[in-house]
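Translate structure to sequence.
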């Protein structure tokens, strides 16, 4: 799987870490499960979950989930 580079806060050419993603999405709790997948749970607001093969894949899934949520809410609703 080809990943976009330049999303890590530490190294512009590195893949993001779970800590990088948590800084961008503070309402999410992230971890690596016993299944070796990266998991995310939105802890405030709408109950959302995401998982990915690696941190970058999880980041993409979180962005998709947040985008779907934003598109489904009427104008003026809080996150």
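Result:
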């Amino acid at each position: 799987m080809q990943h976009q580079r330049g999303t890590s806060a530490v190294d512009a050419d590195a893949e993001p870490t779970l800590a990088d993603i948590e800084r961008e999405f503070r309402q999410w709790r992230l971890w690596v499960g016993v299944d070796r997948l990266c998991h995310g749970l939105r802890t405030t607001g709408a109950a959302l979950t995401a998982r990915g093969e690696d941190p970058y894949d999880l980041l993409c899934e979180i962005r998709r989930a947040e985008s779907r949520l934003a598109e489904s809410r009427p104008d003026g609703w809080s996150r």
